[in-house]
């Protein structure tokens, strides 16, 4: 059972806020999570509203290119939705293989959504709206690299609805916390045959009390929750036009897409060999990196390069919090840790090799490079 936190630190925070004159306004089964009261996220912070400077005059009339399209128009220049045999207006393109225009693929406990006949550019605006509608702010929004990541947010459904929350919590709700934070990363990749692959990766932190008198706390990492990832995949399918029952059906009938990776050592160099095409290997390596403590800063599919570095989630949350915005400085590039280049390259139509390289393309044989390959091997098998 999740604990509620109304600690001395929370009271101090409330006092500080008032001084500035500011008013702040796991389950084990999918069926449990699919009940509507298990997901109620609220971003940990938001930017102040924009204000128009007083010396600016109001524009006479908006140009046509800046006029909002009608409500029924497709987003981001995407084509209108297609009708399925079942009568859905679906985002994907229905076919005999995919009557709903989309399907789920899986590799172990990892799942991703394949939307047929749609490009990442066409789906990107709807993915932005999806996370915002579910209570998240976007910390990373990079359509050029296909990386979208939410800011840390709290699932308010984890807070017990007891007498304390119904009384004190109404007055200072921000001080009443579940003691957990979640973040979701979405990777959007161009798949074969004009499809788009969309994966969701969950990261989690939990606040634990420390000290002899339990008067302080620190954030520690919690394991990712594949069930929660699946829940958001079903919600995303509903965003794209399916019913709740149809999205659950696709999730239950996820198609296997596994191919074991092998570690190869030759001439002092270590690499991973995957018996699959580059398209599939590129996606799976991205998913595997997302489930380690290495975060993807950038990626270049044309060169087959993922740019990654070690990420300390607890430090990131400190910088994102109230005191972090006041006192923490953004770390400089030399203090963020070294960046590694993960090279995914095809050796044939059905074989792909993964190695760690430097900026010149030479294979790196350091201990850190071998550690990344070992982590990838574990995630890919």
UniProtKB/TrEMBL annotation:
Keywords: Signal
Entry-linked Gene3D superfamilies: Outer membrane protein assembly factor BamC (3.30.310.170)
Signal peptide start and end residues: 1-25
Superkingdom of origin organism: Bacteria
InterPro entries from the UniProt entry: BamC_C, NlpB/DapX
Protein name listed in UniProt: Outer membrane protein assembly factor BamC
Organism: Trinickia symbiotica
């Amino acid at each position: 059972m999740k604990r509620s936190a109304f600690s001395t630190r929370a009271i101090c925070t409330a006092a500080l806020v008032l001084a500035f004159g500011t008013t702040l306004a796991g389950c084990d089964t999918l069926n449990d999570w699919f009940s509507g009261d298990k997901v109620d996220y609220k971003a940990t912070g938001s930017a102040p509203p924009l204000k128009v400077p007083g010396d600016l005059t109001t524009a006479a009339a908006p140009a046509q290119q800046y006029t909002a399209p009608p409500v029924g128009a497709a987003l981001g220049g995407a084509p209108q939705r297609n009708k399925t045999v079942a009568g859905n207006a679906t985002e994907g393109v229905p076919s005999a293989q995919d009557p709903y225009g989309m399907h789920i693929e899986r590799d172990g406990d990892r799942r991703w959504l394949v939307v047929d006949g749609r490009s990442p550019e066409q789906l990107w605006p709807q993915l932005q709206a999806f996370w915002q509608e579910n209570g998240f702010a976007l910390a990373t929004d990079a359509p050029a690299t296909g990386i979208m990541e939410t800011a840390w947010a709290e699932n308010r459904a984890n807070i017990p609805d007891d007498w304390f929350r119904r009384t004190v919590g109404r007055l200072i709700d921000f001080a009443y916390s579940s003691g957990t934070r979640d973040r979701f990363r979405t990777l959007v990749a161009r798949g074969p045959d004009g499809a788009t692959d969309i994966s969701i990766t969950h990261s989690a932190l939990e606040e634990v009390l420390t000290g002899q008198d339990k008067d302080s706390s620190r954030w520690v990492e919690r394991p990712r929750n594949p069930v929660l990832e699946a829940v958001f995949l079903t919600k995303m399918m509903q965003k794209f036009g399916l019913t709740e029952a149809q999205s659950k059906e696709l999730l239950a009938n996820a198609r296997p897409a596994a191919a074991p990776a092998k570690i190869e050592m030759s001439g002092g160099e270590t690499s991973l060999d995957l018996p699959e095409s580059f398209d599939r290997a590129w996606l799976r390596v991205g998913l595997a990196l997302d489930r380690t403590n290495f975060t993807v800063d950038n990626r270049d599919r044309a060169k087959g390069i993922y740019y990654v570095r070690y990420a300390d989630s607890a430090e990131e949350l400190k910088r994102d919090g109230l005191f972090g915005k006041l006192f923490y400085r953004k770390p400089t590039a030399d203090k963020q840790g070294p960046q590694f280049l993960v090279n995914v390259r095809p050796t044939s139509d059905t074989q792909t090799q993964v190695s760690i390289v430097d900026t010149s393309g030479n294979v790196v044989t350091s201990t850190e490079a071998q550690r990344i390959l070992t982590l990838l091997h574990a995630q890919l098998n």
